[in-house]
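seq:
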Amino acid sequence: MVQLKIIWGGVFITLALLLSGCSSMLPKARSQSSPFETFEEARTSIEGLVPMKSNVTDLAKMDIDPVKQPNTSILTHADIVRRFVPSSLIKREDLDPGVLACLEARDACRGWEIPAARILRARTGNFFTDFTNFSRRTETTGWRFKALILLVNDVVVYRAWSGQPHINEVEVNTNPLGPLQDMGPAIVTTR
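struct:
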């Protein structure tokens, strides 16, 4: 009888913990693809490049190198033409002088498109409803940054940046049937 009370007590405590929402037991994921710690640091670094003066050595000092920086795209002259001269609506005088210098330099022109991000995805909420697939809540926070640098003979002629300084997204998935929700298609067989 005493053993049965201990077992039921353990089951009760376990259920109470599960139902109380042990959010620390929920999965978390982090991705980072940046030598920069913050969006502001990335922005300041790119804005610190001086067109027609900064060079590849300056970029290397800031850890901006397509070989070392993950996910960096190296753009050819043809890529740059497609990006900056997409239609006949844009006139030559509408383009930045650095872009013009790059286009005129032909094969001496190259570009680097540098994405940078620090993203944290965390499932939050009640462990029991998440584990049994009744309800899952995922919070995504962080920042994304993208820079474009054009170079002619290893000298920066143009730089621009864009991005999302603050990401705060919440996704809630609710399944009224919980763990049975995804069983439907698996049970149905075709002849």
